Amino acid sequence: MIAYPNINPIAVDLGFASIHWYGVSYVAGILAAWILLKYRARHFKLSLDNDQISDLVFFAMLGIIIGGRLGSVIFYNFTYYLVHPEEIFYIHKGGMSFHGGLIGVIFSVWFFSYKNNTSFFKITDFITPVVPIGLGCGRIGNFINGELWGSPSDLPWAMIFPDPAAGGIARHPSQLYEAFFEGLVLFIILWWFSTISRPVRATTGLFLIFYGIFRFLVEFVRMPDQHIGYIAFNWLTMGQLLTAPMIILGIILLVMAYRVEK
After folding, report:
1. Alpha-carbon dihedral 90, 91, 97, 101, rounded to 10 degrees
2. How far apart are alpha carbons 108 and 151 in whole angstroms?
3. Which pLDDT band, with edges at 50, 70 and 90, does 93 fall under?
4. Rounded average pLDDT over 178-186
5. pTM across the whole model
6. Where are the alpha helices (DSSP H) in the chain?
7. 34, 50 Cβ separation under 8 angstroms
8. Which residues pair with 12 in a beta bridge?
9. What is the biggest distance separating any 2 CA atoms in the chain, rounded to whole angstroms?
10. Residue 169 pLDDT exceeds 60
């Protein structure tokens, strides 16, 4: 067993306000993605200037924050927030849904594509290779918050999380699993895949497939939200239910991409 580092979730306490590591992780992910998008635009000769990329990052950021928070509220804890609507704005405490953020980004990219008269899927192919950076940073934020921990485990790297709801027993550090697979591994796959010209929709499809597979598998060792539990079969989680359609859609997009190319 490895000792949980028990990092203070508050990075900087200003007295009148505090900056949380969870928020810092999102900012770090967005800044890193912004830098890499500028690199991609230069080296892959996309017809997007720095101002357009800045607009794209801004719209995507709004989609991530608004969609991610609303997704968490609607998909995972709707009845609670009906009673405590003011807590919808407590983003610093965690509670962001990837699937909600994905929907938010889809709307943001659609708006950007419409505004700039460009292809929706060309833009999604452009941004998806850098998305795993934000995902990985977000999972590190979850780990520091001590939330979304895994099921009981006797593996050497299991940890005891400080949240009383974790029961004081060793558990899978599922946040780190997701940071590794959805962050680092997925980034390597997509960056490598996109280093040469691919048919439109292919990179987007590959992202949906591999994110879906990684998320679906990690959910087997990640505890479901207590107020939701398992959806069916005593193992199907809300995360898996929302992720399965992504895999199917990714396969469809990948097949369409290479059929159109022929």
Report:
1. 120
2. 35
3. low
4. 97
5. 0.89
6. 21-43, 50-62, 68-71, 78-83, 98-115, 120-127, 131-145, 174-178, 186-193, 202-218, 238-261
7. no
8. 19
9. 62
10. yes
Q: 174, 141 in Cβ contact below 8 A?
A: no
Query: Cβ neighbours of residue 149 under 8 Å, at least 6 residues apart?
Result: 159, 161, 163, 166, 171, 172, 173, 174, 175, 222, 223
pLDDT tens for residues 63-86?
988 888 888 888 777 777 877 777
Residue type, 95: G
Residue 13 is given by DSSP the state E
Whether the Cβ atoms of residue 221 and residue 172 lie closer than 8 Å to each other? yes
Helix (H) or strand (E) holding 170: strand 170-171
Question: What are all long-range contacts of 158-164, with beta carbons under 8 Å and residues at least 24 apart?
Answer: 158/1, 158/2, 159/1, 159/2, 159/3, 159/4, 160/1, 160/3, 160/4, 161/4, 162/4, 162/6
Confidence of residue 92 (pLDDT cuts 50, 70, 90): low
C-beta of residue 68 within 8 angstroms of C-beta of residue 98: yes
202's tokens: 């292919």
DSSP codes joined into one string, 188-220: HHHHHHTTS---TTHHHHHHHHHHHHHHHHHGG
